[in-house]
Amino acid sequence: MKRHALRGLVMLGLIALVTSVASAQTTTDTVEVRNRKDGTTKTFNGQFKVGPGGFQVFSGEKLEKASEAFAPDDIVKVIMGNMPGVDANAFNGFKTKEDKKTTKDYTDAIAGYKDLTKKATTDRGRRYLEYKVASVNQKIVDELDMEKGWKEKADEAISAWQGFIGNYTEAGKFGWEVWPAVRSVTRLQIERGKYDDAASAWGNLRKSVDLPADAKLEAGLQEVDLKIRSKSYATAATAAAPAGELDKVAVGSRKERLAIYDLAAKAGTSGKLTEGVEAIKAAMEKTKDTAVHATGFAMMGELYLAAGKPRDAMWMFLWVETVVNQDKDEVFKAISRLAEMFESQMMDEEQAKKYREKIKRFRGTF
What we know:
The chain is α+β, with helices and mostly antiparallel strands. It is built from 16 helices and 5 strands. The chain has a domain at 22-82. A 5-stranded antiparallel beta sheet has the order 4-3-2-1-5. Strand 3 and strand 4 (65-66) form a beta hairpin. The longest helix is centred in the first third of the chain and has 24 residues, at 2-25.
């Protein structure tokens, strides 16, 4: 009887083990996506992939069922499912450390993710873990005050992101993580005033064959925007030109924003900066779209800045920050410009410090 009972317990243990392994192997990704119109969120379960068809979640036994495609900037949260070779409990332990948000716990999480990267047996798992290493490293940088070694650490984080993006932008290696990686590196580059580098990051991403068309367009708009901010007006004008590559696919708000970029780039190229401001004002009067207005005020600020009129530029960027402030990306660029201007051009250290503190608080919204 004892032998039979023992055999039964062993069999139950084996069944439990097999069930546990099977469960781990079929664990799916969880992706939370925001609806831009009403702010509600929707959750998708399956395998999260990106390709020419869009950012989508695939389900079904053979991953044959595709969700609707959604914009990468609408992704609120991604919880990765099973990563072969990676112990789920170990990963969750490091994620718990990351969530504590202390420098020591961040450092421990980075070390843990690096160790798990060596154990991952799929490109998908390694890519995600390398992404986690770079993103947690940036969290450490984001907690630093700009006066206390932040620049050096920010440049190190930029280099880490560039290495990750370089490894995973090419065909066959591309993954959804590349988009937030470019968002992250360009945010740091904007804070450092390296607008041309940020423009190049978006331009290189736009060339990826695995990026869906809608995301290519958004990357193109970001590239043009940052080219103008870096005063690379001629290349910006070519990219934003009517009937050009971007203009052919842009519709609605994006087409109107592109037209404003075209006006700003042409004004910069010709040197007729004041005329450019007036042309942008006239274009803005044709629409009530706040996204278009935010772009318009930002570009007028850039033209005023280039014309040596920092006080006029200040009012344009303040308008973006306080009135047409629905787009957090535009707001971040505006407050970064204001911090830079108050420090280097208007010699107002008190206001410069205020905006540096705003930047630090604002980082947490990305």
